[in-house]
Amino acid sequence: MTLQHIGEIIFRRLLGRRSLVVAAVVVVLLAALVGLRSFSASPPIAAFERARLALSRARRAGANIYAAELLRPAEAGWKQATQAWGNENKKWFFRRDFRAAWSLAGTVQWQAQRAETLAVATRDSLQFTAAAELTMVKQKIDEFKNEFARVPVAAALRKKFVTGELAMIEGEYAFNRQDYWQAAAKAQSAAELVGSAGADATKVLQTYLTQVSKWKQWAVETIAWSAQQNAAAIVVDKMAHRSRLYVAGRLKAEYHVDLGPRWLGHKKQKGDGATPEGHYRVIKKKGPGQSKYYKALELDYPNEDDRQNFLAAQKNGELPRSAHIGGLIEIHGDGGRGVNWTAGCVALRNQDMDELFALAPVGTRVTIVGALTERPAVSQTSVALAKKNLNGARPIPGSSQ
Question: Three-state SS for 362?
């Protein structure tokens, strides 16, 4: 065997070993790539599904309302996570690395779960609070509506009350759509408005009722006069919306009456819609065809006391010099309308007017008082009147002033 032949054998053996080494290196590299892909290139499907479900539960719990400070970063993180996943999908498979997307999805899940927990706790607490406040403000509104039966509320006060009632209705709508933040806020606003209006109405009423003792004395004197004179006498209680007929000092009949829409307080001038208070007498009886309102008993308003009060009000600037005292105050028919509608007169139902007209001759003493009790009870009829007064009823034009 020659030296050349021996060299060729050795070269072939070396060449075979090199192929084996190269093949081994290739196998190792492929295994490393496969392992790396299984570790870092696996799509974060499960993590994203958990994050999505957590966000969905948080939104259903109202986290956008009750835990917005926690939900906002969770939603922002969701956008970042989906963007990170999309960026990796654009690369060659062996270069993809989803570790950032996995991490972001986990953070989103954690933040969304916290938002859901806080939202549920806050929502339940606010639901209880809003329900309680709405119930209380409804009670205040009912109480205030009862006050309308006794107090002709000024336009500004009525506007405040109506605004409060509307706020309460808006609160109920918010409660029904489970926006308890808004429901509680509206209930609080309604309570403040109605409470303020109620305080003002109570102040007006309390001031008015300071004269009850005087009015009681007027009624006693009138009934005593009826007994002494063996005659008919009429006592009109404006607060109770009642007219009582006494004959020989004994109660003969009692009638419901409609008054002027501004009956609270003494009548000051023509056109003010107020029913006067004081001692009067029937000076004229008007049968059918003589009165616009079926039948009427005309009173001697204004009397001397009324004139003195009118002149004093002009002198101290309470009334302008151009004001007129008015007149033609009557007890007449066409009442029973369920609203204070007259221009200052006392209106009865026609069948009641028939009875009163027959029993009250010219000269009958008529005493009109504001109230006969310090805390008058509210009848169902008065409550109905109150609700109609909410709509701002105006005097119906007629002969009475």
Answer: coil
Residue 401: CB partners within 8 Å, gap ≥ 6?
270, 271, 326, 327, 328, 329, 343, 344
Q: Which of these, 173, 187, 182, lies nearest to 137 by C-alpha position?
A: 187
- pLDDT tens digits for 332-341? 999 999 889 9
What is the model's pLDDT at position 349? 97
Question: For residue range 342-393, what is the model confidence (pLDDT) as tens digits?
Answer: 999 999 999 999 999 999 999 999 999 999 987 654 444 444 444 444 344 4
Q: In what order do the strands lie in the sheet with 365-369?
A: 250-256, 242-247, 232-237, 365-369, 278-286, 296-299, 330-332, 346-347
Whether this prediction's pTM lies above 0.70 is answered by: no
Question: How far is the C-alpha of 294 from the C-alpha of 291, rounded, in Å?
Answer: 6
Domain 212-389 homologous superfamily, CATH = L,D-transpeptidase catalytic domain-like (2.40.440.10)
Considering the domain 127-209 in this protein, what is its CATH number? 1.20.1270
